[in-house]
Records
---
Amino acid sequence: MKKLLYFSGIFAVMVITISCSKKFDNYAEPAETFAGKVTNGGKEGLQTEIGGGGTRIKMEELSWSDNPTPYYFYCLQDGSFNNSKIFKGKYRVSVEGPFVPLVQSDSSGNVTVDNSQTLDIAGVTNLDFSVEPFLNVTWMSEPVYNSAQGTITVQVKFSRGTSNPDFQSNVSDVFFFVNTNPYVGNNNYDNRYSTQVSYSGTEGNDDVDQTVTITSRETLPTGRTYYLRIGARVDYGLKYYNYSDIKSIQVP
């Protein structure tokens, strides 16, 4: 009986100790909204990739630290963003993607250009970013279905999106992406039908501002809708694509 009381006492002390040492998170869940759009020179939304390889928002909360750990999230395909799970506070915000960097540093790591924005986020906060893409990619005609071959032919043009010579690297390739859903790009395409045109050295620069004709590969199954997009990129940094908008075509 004494042993039973002894062990019961020890158990009670352990429970009390654990209960007293346990800390509860009383912080309210993040509920502020940060929304906006990344635009092509202040015009239309900058077409981008979904997820990795696309345009991402970089946020640094300055409420508690001058050197905080960055928080990232990605834009939608049309360059818009809307994150409704942000803590209220003061933030330094920038965007990263296939365009002239808003924040630039020299070889020693010293910041030479800083176009980031500092703002207080509370409730619904909106902010747009105007950037200079490495390339502008545009359709030159509507896609054409070649019934005899079961392929699709497109005509596109890519041009320099910035006059800054430091960011006019060689064009490395242009990619005609084909998919059966509207999420189409380098992360989402059907390799059986998509076509990549690769350039060596300065070859691709000769096609800048020219109409380029590209045809899909293999025979497309009929009775389906296909979503089409053109990506072009330069040999700079992580080599992310700049994109056209998305077109669709019904293959009878």
Note: The chain has two domains: 32-131, 135-251.
---
Amino acid sequence: MAKQDYYETLGVPRTADADELKGAYRKLAMSFHPDRNPDDSEAETKFKEINEAYEVLKDEEKRSTYDRFGHAAFENGGGAQRAGGFSDIFDEMFGDFAGGRSSGGGRRADLRYNLEISLADAFQGRKIEIQVPTAVSCEPCNGSGAKAGTSPITCTHCRGAGRVRAQQGFFTIERTCPACHGHGSVIEEPCGSCSGTGRIRKEKTLSVDVPPGVVDGTRIRLSGEGEPAAGGDSPGDLYIFVAVAAHRIFQRDGSSIFCRVPIPMSTASLGGAIEVPTIDGTRAKVTIPAGTQSGQQFRLRNKGMSVLRSKSRGDMFIEASVETPVNLTKRQRELLKEFEEAGDGQSHSPASEGFFSKVKEFWDDLTE
């Protein structure tokens, strides 16, 4: 089912400004929040859709991209991106309204990296180096954001709590302190290298061990390789989501490998042997019995995919596709004609005769 347009999800026009987006999100999030709708899966799904829509539309760059390309702009893309985001958005809007998510200070971020590998790599496993753009702690200020020789001071607005409370109607809303942005402290003399953020953008090279037998959608976690929060907090994790690319010869189904192989009509009729490639780069001999039909399968045991976290392998299945010869010479046509006339009343095409006998019975039933 196609995803609903983000503007329709929030119930706003495409010309809505930031305040309209925030107001619509706030109203819907309060209405569908799981704490208000316990054991209501539809409300939980709606809440997730609302958060997803607001995460994109509240960011000018993401919104511009979405307006141009729609949902496709954020699907099946490579590179690193934040693995979460929904709780961050809710904290930004309502603070601890839903029961508290964090104390003061920055929030570390998990990252997601989409990695596409070949079927051969999935079979044998591989160590792959990836380039991940991320934020790392600033070395001159050791992640504090303050100029060397100075330190952040306690925020006077929240008195170091990182959060402030406000009365709104029947609710007491606790939200992130707007003065210190939840850190509980402010920087009077910011670091010149990171402009007081405590982080700098950097591309780092990481090594990923892809195990043999990995399947499409496998998630690999690299602990501590995400982004640190501002203020020197420990970094989050990096999650590698593996996608296995389609192969031009083989099709995979779990630990099984399927390969459709064309068989010359003469070999299918008289029998013989053929060689087929295998996923491990070797060749395997397959005996073709006389009278082989298209669609008939032959199993090669232990010639399939590696099984994840096991030393065993699945099986390979060869599906015969009997090929009708083309561009026949005059003599070849004569031989086929002789073959057809030399039947002596015997059946050489059981499938065809069986089909047309059923057709005859069908026609007879219609004329009765």
Note: The domain at 1-75 is CATH 1.10.287.110 (Helix Hairpins).
---
Amino acid sequence: MEISSEWFRDWFDSPYYHKLYFEHNEQEATAFISRLIDALMPPAGSLMLDVACGRGRHSRILSEKGFDVTGIDLAADSIALARQYENAHLHFYLHDMRSPMRINYFAYAFNFFTSFGYFRTQREHDNTIRAVGQSLVDRGIFVLDYLNVRYSEDHLVPQSTKTIGGTVYHLTKWNDEKHFYKKISITDPTLKEPLCFTEKVAKFTLGDFNDMFAFHHLQIQEVYGDYQLGSYDVKKSPRLIMIADKVKS
């Protein structure tokens, strides 16, 4: 199956994407960020960057906790919706994470919910890590929340169907040596014909991230394996949540 090299541009801007992934787990997201902030203990008013922020759900939670938050995303409709929540301490910009968003500016950067690993080339992934690193001040913190490859391989469900508010999502999943794939077929009474999107996510391991980070002056300090911030186990953990800090070059 041929997949668009930038499939995420249309899919992540679709209202069906947000209904499928986000509208049902607001409490889980809030609880996760609360645990994360308790672990990081950032000073009040810290400058934070939410990389691939979507409609700004995580950005809003961080802002409500007393931080100055900038959210960036390349999905124009999502950013337009996020901007309705802007205030003196919450800002949203249409911006591609492969390019820096300010230099040596943010104390913290976050990339949540496997919002990485989508690009066609390794250089693009490296450019993203470089851009985030450049956006951070020295000793700034980068948190990247990714899927755990081994666990995802072992728990892959080839076929499933979800019905959300009258919309039917049929999901087909598979993987090869380097990527996970998910085909989403959407049937909705308001659609003349079904919509179809296919996700493609790289199989990056902890070792891969360690190499990418180190090359761009980021050093992994802590790794968690789930949204409860449990310890990471390569076989048993559903997530790979990495806390890295920026070291001087």
Note: The helical segments are 8-11, 15-21, 26-40, 57-64, 76-82, 122-135, 149-154, 206-215.
